[in-house]
Amino acid sequence: MSRTLPQAKTDAPMPAITPGERNRSLLAEVKKRSGTDFNRCFQCRSCANGCPFVQAMDHPPNAVLRLLQYGLDQQVLECNTIWVCVGCHTCSSQCPMAIDIAAVMDTLRLLAMERGAAIAKPNILDFHEEVLHSLQRYGRAHKLGIMWHYKLQTRRWFSDMDTGLKMLAHRKLELRPSRVQAIDEITGLFKCYWGESR
Amino acid sequence: MSNSEQLDFSYFPGCSMATTAAESNASLMKAARVLGFNLIELEDWNCCGSSSASTLCKDLALGMAARNLSLAPAGRPLVAMCPRCLLYLRRAQARLRQDPEIRRELEERWQRPIPLDLEIMHFLEVMARFGLDRLRQSVKRSLKGLKFVPYYGCTVFGPPDLEREKHYQGEMENILKVLEAQPLIGAYTHRCCGSFLSATDPELVTPLVNEIIDSAVAAGAHCLVTSCAMCQLNLEIRCSSRIKLPIFHFSEVLGLGLGAEDYEGWFIRHLVDPRPLLHNLALVA
Questions:
Q1: Which sequence spans correspond to the domains of chain B?
Q2: Which residue of chain B has the CA closest to A99?
Q3: First to last CA, chain A
Q4: The sheet that has B247-249: what strands, in order across it?
Q5: B20 and A140: CB-CB below 8 Å?
Q6: Which of A73, A108, B49, B163 is most deeply packed, by most CB within 10 A?
Q7: Which of A38, A89, A138, A160 is the mutation pick for testing B, counting most B CBs within 10 A?
Q8: Complex-level ipTM beyond the 0.85 threshold
Q9: A93 shares contact with chain B (CB less than 8 Å)
Q10: How confident is the model over A31-67, as pLDDT tens digits?
Q11: What chain A residue is nearest to B155 in terms of C-alpha separation?
């Protein structure tokens, strides 16, 4: 394989597996929920070569599809690939077999949470939850508040401070949130994520 | 001015346009007014749900986007400026069309109908369909000499589940050529800007942003022009290359060409000040 292509981090060989013996319930569930049939994948790596974030992933997107086909469910649900993916759909648009790979990643994130898998990038989940708090409170995203709470959560106080200060200096971060008036039309929607408790 | 009749649209600003990209909103309003587009802000709109609701809970994401659809009066198209907002609004509409049960439930919740035939479009589409002649008649300031790379980002071309919707490849170039600005080819025009990883993992985003900006520098560009407010922000705050190019919102360039004089208020909000460039090219006084 060419050295010049961007590579995902893992190149250690995996233990031998016997596909026929595996339970493939996750595979079926992902196909159903993502509406995507990825049996057409022939491992051409177009998705991996085009993915802007492949170097930060422990498995390239094509390998995630392969792991799914092999029934290696835990490796799939606990890999960081599914969290590093932001859904830019570059993979989906350039797949020669028209597989919507981003939709598969989207479904895998939900399944990882539903099945209680270890979240490979907990800071990203924290961030999304802080955004949800802000939306629930104001109906709109208050970026300064989101970043404040996110920093509180991840304790990364001083990382990236200069960017925040520059944004404040250019009035890019509003001190006060912009609010929805009829907020009670929105708060009830959040029960489907937090449950009845909030 | 012969900008025939005024056209009415509902307008969904979204959180970025209302806050971090207020300069894009201001310039958009200015340009739209001159062109005879009446953008009527959706009353009491809420966040479209963004990537976060979409990642964590599909029903929540649907609910957030659908409430905005329920606020839109039937009979006039809904215009968004943020490609992600556009995506989530359209996705919600597509799901409501397929699932009458959920639609009924949400309509009961808010005691309002949700129009399923509402046309939802990006402002680029408004320009492409109704704006070019109006623009030709209203140009006040030539941008001759301004070499730009159009930067669309990843979303405005539409993910596969919406691929039958309008694509916008080339529209920014067509529109800004009317102002005599010069589009360049050979740079990254729709590579992802890093999205929310810019907040959570900036060290992953900086090399990507640098590649995008460096490619524009190599193409000989003076600046990039973007159709997405989040891209604009990420390209500005995450670039560590030696040469940093100004990143314009598409609406700002449009506003300049239509003769806006209140651009100071837009450009002081940029982290890479575009004013020296505009002065050097003698495009503004």
A1: 7-121, 140-280
A2: B160
A3: 51
A4: B182-183, B147-151, B223-226, B247-249
A5: no
A6: B49
A7: A89
A8: yes
A9: yes
A10: 999 999 989 999 999 999 999 999 999 999 999 999 9
A11: A88
Residue with tokens 């940029």: B270
Is B161 a residue whose pLDDT tops 80? Answer: no
Task: Say if residue A4's pLDDT is above 60.
Answer: no
Written as six digits, the tokens of B253 are 């360039």
Mutate to test the interface with B, among A40, A119, A123, A135 (most CBs of B within 10 A): A135
Burial category of B5 from C-beta neighbours within 10 Å (exposed 0-12, middle 13-18, buried 19 and up): exposed
Q: Does B55 touch chain A (CB under 8 A)?
A: yes
Nearest residue to B257 (alpha-carbon basis) of B225, B227, B222, B283: B283
- What dotted CATH number matches B7-121? 1.20.1050.140
User: Fold for domain B140-280?
Assistant: Rossmann fold (3.40.50)
For residue B164, is pLDDT > 90? no
List residues bridging with B224 in a β-sheet: B149, B247
- Is the CB of residue B235 less than 8 Å from the CB of residue B272? no
Whether B194 and B240 have beta carbons less than 8 Å apart is answered as no
Residues of chain B contacting A124 with CB distance shorter than 8 Å: 196-197, 200-201
CA distance A29 to chain B (A): 16
Tell me whether A94 touches chain B (CB under 8 Å): no
B18–chain A Cβ distance below 8 A for any pair: yes
Contact B237, B271 (CB under 8 A): yes
Q: For chain A, give every domain's residue range.
A: 19-114, 122-194
